[in-house]
Amino acid sequence: MAALDRSLISRLPLFRELTPDEQTELLRSARSSRYAKDTAIFEQETDAHSFFVLIAGHIRVVRTTPDGQQVIARYISEGEIFGVAAALGRTTYPASAVAAVDCVVLAWANALWPELARRFPAFGATTYRTVGNRLQETQTRVMEMSTEQVEQRVAHALLRLANQTGRKTDSGIEIDFPISRQDIAEMTGTTLHTVSRLLSKWEERGIIVSGRQKVTVKDPHRLVVLSENRDKG
Amino acid sequence: MAALDRSLISRLPLFRELTPDEQTELLRSARSSRYAKDTAIFEQETDAHSFFVLIAGHIRVVRTTPDGQQVIARYISEGEIFGVAAALGRTTYPASAVAAVDCVVLAWANALWPELARRFPAFGATTYRTVGNRLQETQTRVMEMSTEQVEQRVAHALLRLANQTGRKTDSGIEIDFPISRQDIAEMTGTTLHTVSRLLSKWEERGIIVSGRQKVTVKDPHRLVVLSENRDKG
DNA sequence: GGCAGAATTTGCGCTGGCGCAAACTCGGGG
DNA sequence: CCCCGAGTTTGCGCCAGCGCAAATTCTGCC
């Protein structure tokens, strides 16, 4: 394996508080891998052996129900840490991680976590802050599913995707990885049919443009209105 | 304030890995308070000043939407740590904590967290394990809300309550704090009307008995069947 | 012991969104 | 360049569960 270059991580918030030497040291214990689109980085319920940082690409975190239905827990963007079972004392991964596009990933063996967290406190702290954010986001999602209509939830989901992974184009903010109606349905607790109908309606009104596995938000503001308003359908 | 007795916490899993001396030391930096039923230990969005351990009672963790609707994030039982904003680098509480019955609570100033976590690694590790469990539970709840019918969700919620806080009586497993139909609705994303109808139906069939702010599970097994089965209404 | 208010039950009508099915469209591999 | 299959759109019928409303039953307080 080639030595990993510090430039891989020096720009990422997760590592920014570390000195160059520390960054180099942290990298020395990591291994890097590529994952082709639609391959799994790890699978739900399997023994957690490593934790990861996404260097390039997008990852879909998916939980599968006992009867095989899938729910998308979240998307991971570049620079984010994921699969942090070790930091939370878990022995298995509670979900699967699947490359949404070709990805580059750094991995550390779980056994290294205690030492790394001790040696680089800022790294540990950032990780736990991330966990805290995800817990809150997940609870927010429970709230949305409890109190909002499907239309509001899908609007919220698109806005979140646009913010987190949106790429500005001349026609609007494009979600920069392939995402199907089915994916959006699995993020919002509805069916691909309902998502399709909503996107069609919004496209008619010029709020978005969408194609096969592709959504571009043209008018975020009107989407915000939809996400807040129980009526105004 | 009277000195806190080590017997308060020595039986709790959170502290069991600590030596008696360590337990005493940990207690020295804590303060204990009582909260009457329906009073708040902390409020959503306010500055997080402390983290807590519940010594006696039951606590409801509630999130309120911008338009005032409430969702119950979880119930805290005796011995559990809660309000751990500090450990996750948050500056405000993401939810409110309200005493479901009269409660006794230990509190530590947030500023103490780093030192305590360093000094008592087992304490920190247990806390993070708890956070990990809650994250997973919350994601499970998202899954349930995405894929299950209301009847299944309410059955799941009752089973969870019975397991976590159930008290065995001669007539079944009684949830040992006052819980209204409205509360159950806020846990499962439905309305008190629907909960009431379900409980009535289950009572007719002898699966539960229920009264005002009270539910006793008589036949957990049939409740499990209901929680798993999309039909068999 | 009685009363006011809270919690619960139950009826009824309506509808958002699901399930099913069929048609259509697009993009990539052969 | 054409074909195949995945992804998407759209129509249609139905029903779980919500919203509203009213009646009923507790229960804690005075």
TrEMBL record, chains A, B:
It comes from Mesorhizobium qingshengii. GO terms for molecular function: DNA binding; DNA-binding transcription factor activity; kinase activity. Residues 14-107 form the Cyclic nucleotide-binding domain. Residues 148-221 form the HTH crp-type domain. InterPro entries: cNMP-bd_dom (IPR000595), cNMP-bd_dom_sf (IPR018490), Env_Response_Regulators (IPR050397), HTH_CRP (IPR012318), RmlC-like_jellyroll (IPR014710), WH-like_DNA-bd_sf (IPR036388), WH_DNA-bd_sf (IPR036390). This is cAMP-binding domain of CRP or a regulatory subunit of cAMP-dependent protein kinases. It holds the Pfam family cNMP_binding. Keywords: DNA-binding, Kinase, Nitrogen fixation, Transcription, Transcription regulation, Transferase. The keyword Metal-binding does not apply. One of its GO terms (cellular component) is cytosol. The keyword Repeat does not apply.
